[in-house]
Write a structure and sequence with these properties.
With 453 residues, this protein is of the alpha/beta class. Helix content is 15%, strand content 33%. It is built from 7 helices and 35 strands. The protein is elongated. The protein starts with a strand and ends in a 19-residue tail after the last strand. It binds uridine-diphosphate-N-acetylglucosamine and calcium ion. The site of calcium ion has 2 residues, from loops.
């Protein structure tokens, strides 16, 4: 909307968080609370977004270098009305201003669009909640028209029972907002400039004051404590779990999955309990993820099985592979189709070709490994000489015996065999058996030492 300005209030102290981190930077699903609010704001395609920050100082704008938003400092923080005043220099005289809270992360663009369907009116998003304690209450006349909004600390006896609360989110016509804000006072229980006090000013003007009742009150919940943060995190994860299941994913327990980024799944994926997905993760058809795996920025091909307790970052795994349990992939790990990687194998910046196997206790770093290669237990690519990294090349069909150290740069030729326990420092020719280890000797007639008296 071309005439829409969004003002996000994010200057509050968040005292109950008991944290050095500004409240709006606490993560929900791996991203700051404020990032979620900015997403909802951007979905409305506003002409501008203004974030009012304060507590925590520069850390807030510094966390959003490419947001396109304007950050204005509110110092000191003298209430929600005072916060919106700080944004006034950036607001045009015409159009609508939408006020959001930086600590209300689950608000959806759909809900906000409803609020914006009454241009010219002052429109509040309200909610009916089981326990309204702490919220501003919507006071109406006998005919149901809004009269004012009263804060918890300013309530009189009868108003205590009102169960319709102010979520804090509102839309106001810029043409009037400036004038209303200029007339606010701090004559109330908290000595603050309440944004909600613009209601009687709007009514005096003849501006319609209307409300939109949130269909889903959970969306309008704010974060004041770590407990509330955890509740919203669960709610967010529950929604993601539902979307995954709708898309054809089986979750062993929808209450035990954490997606902190974008998880894209083809049909018939199975995800066991306790898995964490970060960044962009893509799972192909029939992929199975075992219990307690962590995957960050990975792509896993169709039919691949990741066994429990594997930790994969920046990996591309082909189709029909078997990985883990206890596998560790670091950035640049690439597996061809039908490759097998077993327990306690670490792979970094290395390609393990089609149908190749590294089943036990191995480090493969900075390596190019061809097809049909067998890497024996305990094989190590010695990629680092203390100053520089070097590559190991293992060609198709090679067999690396157990406990081999491959001192890079080094190449093992096609179909070569390396004897177990070798330290390979020079290229091993294709098709031949290469050994680099002491010969076995037997000392005939050797006597065990005996203990001296
Ligand atoms: C406010 C509303 C109340 C509503 C409640 C919903 C007012 C006067 N009251 O009360 O009607 O039910 O939210 O949660 O508007 N903020 C600033 N600068 C300030 C003060 C606050 O940026 O000087 C920001 C906070 O960071 C927060 C939001 O505004 O994101 C709300 O502030 P908070 O102090 O939590 O307001 P409440 O007293 O809870
Ligand atoms: Ca609050």
């Amino acid at each position: 909307m071309s005439n829409l300005s969004v003002v996000v209030l994010a200057a509050g102290k968040g005292t109950r968080m008991r944290s050095a981190l500004p409240k709006v930077l606490h993560p929900l699903a791996g991203r700051p609370l404020l990032a979620h609010v900015l997403d909802a704001a951007r979905a409305l395609e506003p002409a501008r977004i203004i974030v009012v920050y304060g507590h925590g100082g520069q850390a807030v704008p510094d966390s959003f270098p490419d947001s396109g938003a304007t950050f204005v400092l509110q110092e000191p923080q003298r209430g929600t009305g005072h916060a919106v005043m700080q944004a006034l220099p950036h607001l045009p005289d015409a159009g609508t201003t939408l006020v959001l809270y930086g600590d209300v992360p689950l608000i959806s663009a759909t809900t906000l669009r409803e609020l914006l369907s009454r241009p010219g009116a002052l429109c509040f998003l309200t909610a009916k909640v089981p326990d309204p304690t702490g919220y501003g209450r919507i006071v109406r006349d006998a005919g149901g028209a809004v009269l004012r909004i009263v804060e918890q600390k300013d309530l009189n006896g009868a108003e205590q029972h009102i169960d319709e609360i102010n979520t804090g989110v509102l839309a106001a016509p810029n043409a009037r907002l400036r004038d209303w804000l200029a007339r606010l006072t701090d004559h109330n229980a908290q000595g603050e400039y309440y944004l909600t006090d613009i209601v009687p000013l709007a009514l005096q003007d003849g501006t319609p004051v209307v409300t939109a009742l949130a269909a889903d009150p959970e969306q309008t919940q704010g974060v004041n404590s770590r407990e509330q943060l955890a509740q919203l995190e669960r709610r967010y994860q529950r929604d993601i779990a539902r979307q995954l299941m709708d898309g054809g994913v089986t979750l062993a327990d929808p209450g035990r999955i954490d997606v902190r980024g974008e998880l894209t799944c083809a049909e018939d994926v199975f995800i066991d309990v306790g898995c964490v997905f970060e960044g962009k993760v893509k799972l192909g058809t029939n992929v199975r993820i075992g219990a307690h795996c962590v995957l960050r920025d990975c792509e896993i091909g169709a039919g691949t099985v990741i066994e429990p307790l594997s930790h994969l970052t920046g990996a591309r795994v082909g189709a029909g592979c078997s990985v883990g349990p206890f596998a560790r992939f670091r950035p640049g790990a690439t597996l061809g189709d039908r490759a097998h990687v077993g327990n306690f194998v670490e792979i970094k910046n290395a390609v393990l070709g089609e149908a190749s196997k590294a089943n036990h206790l191995t480090y493969l770093g900075d390596a190019s490994i061809g097809k049909g290669v067998n890497i024996g237990a305990g094989t190590i690519t010695c990629n680092y000489d203390g100053a520089n990294k070097h590559r190991t090349v293992i060609e198709d069909g090679a067999f690396i015996g157990s406990d081999t150290a491959l001192v890079a740069p080094v190449t093992v030729g096609r179909d070569a065999t390396i004897g177990a326990g070798s330290v390979i420092t020079e290229d091993a020719p294709p098709g031949e058996l290469t050994l680099a280890r002491g010969r076995q000797v037997t000392i005939k007639g050797w006597k065990k030492p005996v203990k001296q008296k």
